[in-house]
Here is the input.
Amino acid sequence: MPGQPETWQSGAEGQLDRRRTESQGQIEQIGGNVERTYVMVKPDGVQRGLVGEVLRRVERRGLRIAALRMNTISREVAEKHYSEHMEKPFFKSLIGFITSGPSVSMVIEGQNAVSVMREINGATNPLNAAMGTIRGDFALDTGRNVVHASDSPGSAEREIAIHFRESEIAAYSRIDETWLYEN
Ligand code: RTP
Ligand code: MG
Here is the structure.
């Protein structure tokens, strides 16, 4: 940007360096423990035109989109992603569904991002999901529940590594973060 002060640039570089100290999905930053989580708009959400709706809810809450991609995930990636459910009766149909068309993958960052995203998505079975959550507002069936989000910081680290290279994850701050967080 013309006239952008040099201090802004050196500040941004300093921030990159700070973020490279990350470990276990937790990023050390001034102001506390920032988490990363992996979020997906599943193929039903894409087909139903809900990508913007999901992104709007993430952004307006104050979370930061650090990586974003649309693609049809392969069976191999899907099986790795949902490996914890390999023995479940719904595994085969889940893999068929999740690979059936394009989905949108993202890395979302912010303080307590893992639990905040789980609350934004709502309960796994949309019939139990609170109104105001994505599943409570847009879904009726567990097998077509629109979105995914990692269930713990450990799962987030594992899932992010399945779907993204570190070089695809952007390091930046939102301009409103000083007003979103007290510390
Ligand atoms: P997700 O992993 O997709 O974010 O969902 P979740 O944590 O809320 O639920 P999880 O237990 O991990 O289940 C993964 C996905 O499998 C499908 N499912 N079907 N038919 C069934 O009983 C059943 N249970 C789970 C859902 O698509 C669920 O989101
Ligand atoms: Mg899960």
User: Anything to note?
Assistant: The radius of gyration is 17 Å. Strands lie at 26-29, 32-41, 64-71, 103-111, 147-149. Confidence is low (pLDDT under 50) at residues 1-24. The longest strand covers residues 32-41.
